[in-house]
Design a protein that fits this description.
Number of domains: 3
Strand content: over 45%
Radius of gyration: 31 Å
Shape: elongated
Length: 537
């Protein structure tokens, strides 16, 4: 069902004695207050003065009940409700929802319509008409009870699947998620700190092909300003269009984008239930379209968090590779992530070693206590004085004789990871730090290793090798750490590689004076110590 209508029509005047149940001119409005006071609704439900307050209806997860404002109509209580009512009810075209939210709109003085979207992609209506009270029970037995049985039969759903994801940066946890999936509906509780702590509750409805039809997310960010601390996001994908509404106490931001025919998916850096959907939708499409093995599937990703608010849709690509694996590339990864999936495209593990997000992700069968973990993350963030970068920026300054030097760089933590040959692969250029490229300045001409440098600003890069390490000095400055351009190289020179006397947790660059004309460039992290000589002139 793609949409469904529920119409309630009550007739009070001049109802015909035959069984036609046409509306009667002058019938009294069947308003919210009347509905709330009917035996359908639990007695603790307050009747709203304004029916705008009562426009939300919800069919709960298994179709067993639905809610009108704060009142509940339970499937199992329907027969008693009807039997105790002075009216009998005719139920036409009965259907059920697996998981469904709808809006109740007061359309005319004589009826209300409940409209929404379900999971089974067919149009249908429910009409409940109140008949005269002269023959309620015969009609109840002939028409309503069979309808209730149909309703009960169609509420059968797929069993709920419970799982989670754990993402680590070395030994440090950066996100935890608890997920419940029932058919095409997903409910998730998640917390991430990358670097700001955010606690999220997400509800997602999927199309038959596994792509997102609707996403609703509530986000709590303890370290943000009070008027930005709680954010509500709704995203709807219809055809080739994504519509997004983001609300907090500062106001509402609305945006809409054309997907250009690509599969639209939500992107959050460390929410891996979304990565699972990303892979599954792409690979399902590839299977249906009979995409050749190894060909990439284009995706279009939209963004949830505040720091991405000014970005349009970006492109991403998924490609199946042998061994039940798939690769993903998009604008924010700055590399290629690799996932291991089962035959149903469930995400079993994910490795970000070849991306700027160097995380390891595992699937959990035991659900984590997300709230407790989130509270602990928030407390640690508060103790630290607010959000801190995962890799802090630092500046090292030194003098050799009259020459002045500075190094501005990001300082990643080892976090128990394998560095050389691990997150720093052999033969690949490393930004020599984290985040933005490492900036190096000298106030006088120098020779570093075998390279002669005029006074000025440069960027430093390194290439680890099994037998040593090369230092690259590059004339381009101000770029991000993934923006290395070899055409700007001044040159390359070997550095001396040795084992540090003690492991160094936080990557450190220093310039150590030796005498008035000589010094040493030193890089230390984990077990390694790299050095290159510096000479003035």
């Amino acid at each position: 069902m793609n949409s469904g209508n529920v119409k309630f029509v009550e007739q009070h005047h001049h109802v015909s004695t035959d069984k036609r149940d046409v509306q009667v001119a002058g019938a009294r409005p069947f308003g919210i207050e009347r509905l709330i006071r009917s035996p359908f609704v639990s007695r603790d439900s307050a009747a709203p003065e304004n029916h705008v307050d009562a426009v939300r209806r919800r069919f709960a997860q298994y179709g067993h009940e639905f809610v009108i404002t704060r009142g509940i109509i339970a499937k199992g209580e329907l027969r008693n409700a009807l039997a105790n009512s002075p009216l009998s009810f005719r139920i036409e075209n009965v259907f059920c929802f697996v998981r469904h939210e709808v809006e109740l709109k007061y359309q005319t003085p004589t009826h209300m319509e409940c409209r929404g979207l379900s999971n089974s992609l067919r149009d249908t209506d429910i009409t409940i008409r109140a008949l005269r009270s002269a023959e309620p029970y015969a009609f109840l037995m002939k028409r309503v009870i069979p309808a209730i049985l149909v309703l009960a039969a169609c509420t059968k759903t797929q069993p709920a699947e419970h799982y989670g994801f754990l993402a680590r940066l070395g030994r440090d946890t950066v996100s935890v998620e608890s997920v419940t999936r029932t058919g095409s509906h997903i409910a998730s509780d998640e917390v991430d700190r990358f670097p700001r702590v955010r606690q999220r509750h997400t509800e997602i409805d999927l199309n038959e092909d596994g792509s997102i039809r609707r996403l609703v997310m509530d986000i709590h960010s303890p370290s943000e300003p009070v008027n930005q601390r709680d954010r509500h996001v709704e995203a709807t994908v219809t055809g080739n269009r994504v519509s997004i509404v983001k609300k907090d106490k500062t106001g509402t931001k609305k945006s809409a984008f054309d997907t250009g025919g690509g599969i639209a998916m939500a992107h959050l850096p460390q929410m891996y239930s979304l990565y699972e959907l990303y892979f599954a939708a792409a690979l399902t499409h590839a299977r249906a379209a009979k995409v050749a093995a190894g060909e990439r599937i284009e995706m279009r990703q939209f963004y949830i968090d505040r720091e991405f608010d000014n970005f349009p849709l970006h492109r991403g690509y998924v490609r199946a590779i042998p061994g039940g694996k798939a690769e993903i590339r998009h604008d924010w990864l700055s590399g290629t992530g690799e996932a291991l999936l089962d035959s149903s495209f469930r995400l079993l593990s994910y490795n970000g070693a070849r991306t700027t997000y160097k995380v390891e992700v595992t699937r959990l069968s035991d659900l984590p206590d997300v709230k407790a973990i989130g509270d602990r993350f928030a407390a640690l963030e508060t103790q630290a004085g607010g959000m801190k970068s995962l890799s802090v920026r630092d500046t090292s300054r030194a003098k050799i004789g009259s020459a002045e030097f500075s190094v501005d760089y990001g300082r990643p933590l080892a976090r128990g990871r394998t560095l050389i040959g691990g997150i720093l692969p052999y033969g690949e250029v490393w930004r020599t730090g984290a985040n933005a490229a490492t900036q190096f300045s000298t106030s006088q001409p120098i020779t570093i290793g075998s390279l002669h440098l005029p006074a000025g600003m440069y960027t430093l890069w390194t290439v680890p090798r099994p037998t040593g390490v090369d230092l690259i000095v590059n004339k381009q400055t101000g770029q991000w750490g993934t923006g290395y351009n070899r055409s700007f190289d001044v040159g390359r020179t070997p550095m001396k590689s040795e084992t540090a006397s003690e492991p160094v947790e936080k990557f450190t660059i220093s310039i150590v004076p030796v005498d008035a004309t000589h010094g040493t460039l030193v890089m230390e992290w984990g077990p390694f110590r790299w050095t290159a000589p510096i000479a003035l002139g």
